[in-house]
Write a structure and sequence with these properties.
A six-stranded antiparallel β-sheet has the order 2-1-4-5-6-7, covered by helices on one side. It has a six-stranded mixed β-sheet with strand order 8-12-13-3-14-15. A three-stranded antiparallel β-sheet has the order 9-10-11. The protein has helices at residues 35-45, 74-82, 117-127, 142-153, 156-188, 190-203, 209-221, 223-238, 244-249, 252-261, 266-292, 297-316, 321-384, 434-448, 468-481, 494-497, 524-534, 542-555, and strands at residues 2-10, 13-19, 24-28, 61-69, 91-99, 107-110, 113-115, 128-131, 394-406, 409-418, 426-427, 456-460, 486-490, 502-511, 514-522. Helices cover 51% and strands 17% of the residues. The protein has 597 residues and is an alpha/beta fold. The protein has 18 helices and 15 strands. Strand 1 and strand 2 (13-19) form a beta hairpin. The longest helix is centred in the middle third of the chain and has 64 residues, at 321-384.
């Protein structure tokens, strides 16, 4: 429910705070006072196109902000949660800002989180339907019409079953198409794949062998030099004269004598022993290494051939032995697909056939429910037309079979109307008159009030071209819808205004030489005065006021209105005090913007 609408610097509006209540809210005022501008501000708030000419002259930007109470709306809460928007307290604030400069960029927020205009529109459409002249609102959307019919038919379960069956069929067909594509690709590449698989397999590649081959090739190509170096080391360690081990052995006797005289130098003996034994080990290792080094031209040639093979395959198949081995595995897997594809395709085709049969059965059940509900919905909506001034109107729910069953079923759903004798039925979105369109919407809403989940409905020009008894009937219809939704109507008719639960008047004035619009919440005598004005008489005459009280009493415009507005308990002559647009709204208190001019 929309609880408050704040508008600043929008068209002729300077700054207003529009408080709304549950039930039927009406906005009245003289022609040109700015009533439709308020509807335009609401449209901007729910994602309509923003242009610089919307900004009030002299202002740098226009701002529209709406506060909504979610109530029980799990789908909308989930949508906000998916967008990372917090609404733990059940309050959603939409805000739209339009700069005055033509090159400026409009901005939007939801609960303080910046969003795109399309994101604002997605959430806004779930909160508010604005029904005005040629507005492409949710009821004009074929998908919405289909959802409403299914809800009216109680066929949501069948619709969900069709969507699931269609998803299963699509998945099965994708699996078949994918396997066929992979099989065909493998067939085209069979010779190449066989070559790759054979080449990689025959090579018997081993991860890490590149380094081992490099090391071995280096040893073999320097074999004579390595043997000579090993011999030199061995000779230096254990040669006949001046060898390291011989010289080191001569140190044993003086070190032992030193230790006998001063036992505290035992540590020196330990160091000597460690050095001697280490050099002995080094000598043995050098000798053993020298014996392993052989000059083997045949082995060197073999290693070089292996290195060339590994290098070529690595370069050809991915840059590493691991990549080359994976390429070989993939080639073998594709080749194996050619052997198993026929069996796998038979199984997948069987699954697709079963999924198609399941979809057909689910779609038949949904079609049957839709056909039964379509004629009933058409009759019930059409029965509303005479009471809404559309005596010659006819309403049709057209089910057009689709060439192929889709996720939404085997048929397209479209609402069509013929509002004049001799005229063909046309799609709802092509109704010429904004007033007629609004009344068709109202007829639908009257029937579907318990089905439609959008909490707030805005009707502009719903009273175009009607009056008298039809106006009363339209007002009664709005009150019926208001039992399930918050309804906000802009009206010129006292018959409709008198049936409101909450009445707001808009007036045009001036501020600093610039036209401005202000609002006022009406109660008691103030409301009697406005109804009298709308009746076309002298608002101050006793006759006009008495007539206005009769209208309010007949319309049950609110408890306690028939005395001060002609009954006990009214606040005769009371008007709700003005408040600035920036002030917080007290709980449950209505308010209007300051008077201008």
């Amino acid at each position: 429910m929309l609880t408050e609408l704040r508008i600043r610097n929008f068209a002729i509006i300077d700054a207003v705070v529009l408080p709304l209540a549950p039930g039927l809210n009406v906005l009245s005022g003289e022609t040109g006072a700015g009533k439709s501008i308020i509807v335009g501000a609401l449209g901007l708030l729910v994602g309509e196109r923003a242009t610089a000419d919307l900004v009030r002259p002299g202002a740098d930007r226009a701002v529209v902000e709406g506060t909504f109470e979610l109530g029980d709306a799990p789908e909308l809460r989930a949508q906000l949660d998916d967008r990372g928007i917090d609404c733990e307290d059940g309050v959603v604030v939409l805000k739209r800002e339009v700069p005055a400069s033509a090159g400026g960029r409009a901005r939007a927020w939801i609960n303080g989180t910046a969003v795109t205009a399309s994101g604002l529109a997605d959430v806004g459409r779930a909160l508010v339907n604005v029904h005005g002249q040629h507005e492409a609102q949710s009821l004009l959307d074929p998908e919405a019409q289909r959802r409403i019919l299914d809800a009216f038919a109680g066929a949501q379960t069948q619709a969900a079953a069709v969507a699931r069956a269609h998803g299963a069929l699509v998945a099965a067909r994708h699996a078949v198409a994918d396997l066929v594509a992979r099989r065909d690709a493998a067939q085209k590449r069979a010779d190449y794949l066989q070559h790759v698989a054979r080449e990689v397999t025959d090579a018997k590649l081993v991860e890490g062998e590149e380094q081992k081959l490099d090391d071995e090739a280096r040893r073999l190509s320097h074999a004579e030099e390595l043997r000579a170096l090993a011999g030199d080391l061995s000779l230096a360690l254990e040669g006949e004269e001046g060898a390291v081990l011989g010289t080191l052995g001569a140190l044993h006797k003086p070190l032992a004598a030193l230790q006998r005289i001063d036992p505290t130098v035992a540590r020196l003996q330990e160091l000597y022993d460690a050095a001697f034994y280490a050099l002995e080990e080094l000598s043995r290792e050098v000798q053993a290494y020298g014996e392993t080094v052989e000059h083997d031209p045949a082995r060197l040639a073999e290693v070089e051939r292996r290195r060339d093979l590994v290098f070529r395959l690595v370069k050809k198949y991915g840059g590493s032995i691991a990549a080359a081995l994976e390429t070989g595995r993939e080639a073998r897997a594709e080749l194996s697909l050619l052997d198993s594809a026929a069996l796998d395709l038979r199984e997948l085709d069987a699954s697709a056939t079963a999924a198609e049969a399941a979809l057909t059965e689910a779609a038949k059940a949904l079609t049957k429910a839709r056909q039964k509900a379509a004629s009933r919905l058409a009759r019930e909506v059409e029965a509303q037309f005479p009471g809404l001034g559309l005596e010659d109107g006819r309403f049709h729910v057209v089910l057009t079979p689709r060439a192929e069953t889709a996720a939404a079923g085997a048929e397209d759903v479209e609402y069509r109307v013929a509002l004049n004798v001799g005229h063909d039925a046309r799609p709802l979105s092509r109704v010429a008159s904004g007033g007629e369109l609004a009344r068709v919407m109202l007829a639908l809403k009257t029937i579907l009030a318990g089905v439609d989940r959008v909490p707030t409905l805005i009707f502009d020009e719903v009273d175009a071209g009607i009056g008298g008894k039809v106006g009363q009937q339209v007002g009664d219809a709005m009150r019926r819808v208001a039992a399930h939704h918050q309804v906000f109507a802009i009206t010129h008719l006292p018959q409709i205004a008198s049936r409101a639960h909450h009445h707001i008047r808009v007036r045009k004035g001036a501020k600093d030489g610039v036209t401005t619009a202000d609002i006022e919440v009406l109660d008691g005598d103030a409301r009697v005065e406005e109804i009298a004005r709308m009746l076309g008489g002298d608002a101050d005459s006793a006759t006009s006021r008495a007539h206005a009280r009769e209208q309010l009493a007949a319309g049950a415009g609110g408890a306690g209105m028939t005395d001060g507005a002609g009954g006990a308990g009214s606040t005769d002559g009371a008007r709700v005090a003005a408040k600035p647009a920036t002030a917080p709204r007290p709980g449950g208190t209505s308010a209007r913007s300051p008077r201008r001019g």
